[in-house]
Amino acid sequence: MASRSIFQVHVFLILALATTAFSKALSPYYYEKVCPKALPTIKRIVEAAVSKERRMGASLLRLHNHDCFVQGCDASVLLDATSTIDSEKNAFSNINSARGFEVIDKIKKKVDKICGRPVVSCADILAVAARDSVVALGGPTWKVPLGRRDSNTANRTLANSDIPSPFMDLPALIDNFKKHGLGERDLVALSGGHTLGFAHCRNFRERIYSGTNINSDFAKKRRKTCPRKGGDTKLAPIDPTPARFDNSYFSNLLKEKGLFVSDQALFSNGSTDGLVKTYSYNPKAFSTDFVKSMIKMGNIKVLTGKRGQIRKNCRKVNSYY
Ligand code: HEM
Ligand SMILES: *[C@@H]1O[C@H](CO)[C@@H](O)[C@H](O)[C@H]1NC(C)=O
Ligand SMILES: *[C@@H]1O[C@H](CO)[C@@H](O)[C@H](O)[C@H]1NC(C)=O
Hints:
This protein is mainly alpha-helical. The chain has two domains: 38-162, Peroxidase, domain 1, CATH 1.10.520.10; 170-297, Peroxidase, domain 2 (Orthogonal Bundle), CATH 1.10.420.10. Helices cover 47% and strands 2% of the residues. It contains 14 helices and two strands; from the N terminus they run H-H-H-H-H-H-H-H-E-H-H-E-H-H-H-H. It has a two-stranded antiparallel sheet. Helix 2 (38-52) packs antiparallel against helix 4 (101-115), helix 2 packs across helix 5 (122-136) and helix 11 (248-254) packs across helix 13 (273-281). The structure holds protoporphyrin IX containing FE and 2-acetamido-2-deoxy-beta-D-glucopyranose (NAG) (2 copies). One 2-acetamido-2-deoxy-beta-D-glucopyranose (NAG) binds at residues 213, 268-269.
């Protein structure tokens, strides 16, 4: 009898710990009861934004990536600079580059109105908008695990060190992803996000003028709109079909037509060559792995339970929390 009640006390303690100390698992049904209209609302606004400008889908996908790689998926990327917030928007990879913030603002306003109060986090909005963007551009769909909460901090220094650079070689990329709890398969699959969107000349100039593992026709073509000097802000599509989520990013790598050093690094006689080949002839394998890795990325250091806050304005920390 005594041992049984001690057992019950233990069970109680473990359950109590599990619900407070440890982070709760995310669930795709998190908003089903509290605001069933939340997800359809996000989808509608993403679809409208993408049909107005196809590139917006790419930009929204990238925002979720840059959120998750800095302090975890906590919407820290959305915070504007103040005396206490060192905005990640000013980090090297984001300044004059990250975009889509107005679409997130629009979603947040509408969702809070439809839900009657701020119950949907900005971090969840980023994750759902990324999925809806992929779908809007012809990619796979998936159920997004939800229940993230928003940070009350941002960290530009961390953004500078933790977001991978387009000049990285394969070992550096593998190491960067490993620090985020992601493996080589995640690296290759998620890099497939570069099937969408555009890049600035400054990020690929070095490669098209002095790269060694680059197709010469491709280099020549890219040099036409990316001069050796100046023209830093000229844009080029990252793969041949920047508004279609397909696997041409990978078939392009086989031809040494990757735009960034970091893209071609995935197919340059290294350990990831095999996977790039597989994705290039098997779009289904790419889709399946991309979805798995997106869910994994979306789980990086999430704030749940009572940690963090639900922001009222994605750009600002609530004054009380
Ligand atoms: C593997 C390491 C990665 C590196 C080094 C990298 C680097 C870059 C760079 C330099 C740009 C162009 C920025 C500009 O010129 O303004 C870019 C764009 C983009 N990245 Fe990545 N990225 C990486 C991983 C990812 C991941 C994991 C995703 C999403 C799953 C992603 C999605 C995108 C998208 C969609 C764009 C185009 C954005 C637009 O057109 O607005 N990237 N990336
Ligand atoms: C930002 O991250 C750096 C590096 O991890 C850390 O030393 C610093 O304390 C962080 N700053 C803030 C405001 O969280
Ligand atoms: C990879 O190996 C092939 C065959 O040996 C060679 O032709 C090619 O130049 C190599 N690529 C790089 C980037 O080293």
